[in-house]
Amino acid sequence: MAKKIKQPKKVLTYEERLVEERACWSQGYLRVAGLDEAGRGPLAGPVVAAAFILLPEFKLEDLNDSKQLSEKQREEFYHYLTSGEWDYGIGIVEPAEIDRVNIYQASRLAMLQALQNLKNPPDYLLVDALVVPETDLPQKSLIHGDARSIAIAAASVIAKYTRDQIMLDYDRQYPGYCFAQHKGYPTKKHYEMLSKLGPSPIHRRSFRLEPRTNQSLELFKELDA
Q1: Beta strands in 27-70 (DSSP E)
Q2: Is pTM, for the whole model, over 0.70?
Q3: Domain 16-169: CATH class, spelled out
Q4: 180 contacts: CB under 8 Å, gap ≥ 6
Q5: Strand pairing of 88-93 and 47-54?
Q6: What angle, rounded to 10 degrees, do the helices at 71-81 and 150-173 form?
Q7: Which among 16, 32, 35 has a CA at the least distance from the CA of 24?
Q8: pLDDT tens-digit profile of 170-196?
Q9: Residue ranges of domains in the chain
Q10: Are 37 and 159 in contact (CB under 8 A)?
Q11: Nearest-angstrom CA–CA distance, 222 and 225
């Protein structure tokens, strides 16, 4: 049997990533909010969500999923997106609450907080992979939404940059864990420091705080480089 070759993901153009927003605008939903979160996978720190209102006049062609941007690009875009010209909101759920309700529910709660922190309510929600609870607003969940929607991409940049700054602050509060380096994600270095120091006050007790096997450490070498 011939080996199946994995095809690279198609990179959408800026206009292709406005398809969902344009569909909303054409139906009269002018204030389209993209929602995304950062921090579902880390062993430590909060989960942070952001909501960003994309209006028809917005245009920033280099904007992309935060994972596809350099740190410098994320910082530049964050300052533009939060400059006051556009409406955005941020939600933060701390580790203790993550442990209490689980990371899935905490991510949804952070998104709801971000939505509530907008200056004015949106007309429609485009959400990355999740559904926002406790709202009657029409919404659509998009798998890989940060790569398919400009509104969600904007939210992803705000959420990622905000969380990174929080983890830099925690690096100063809890030296030794290298939070500035790995931002709380399960890298080889993070596991090594957990083994030496034990969990800090910001570690998620409901997460597995030690690697399952030596093989799992190998998976994190690239992240730790």
Answers
A1: 32-38, 47-54
A2: yes
A3: alpha beta
A4: 167, 168, 171
A5: antiparallel
A6: 110
A7: 32
A8: 999 999 999 999 999 999 999 999 999
A9: 16-169, 175-224
A10: yes
A11: 5
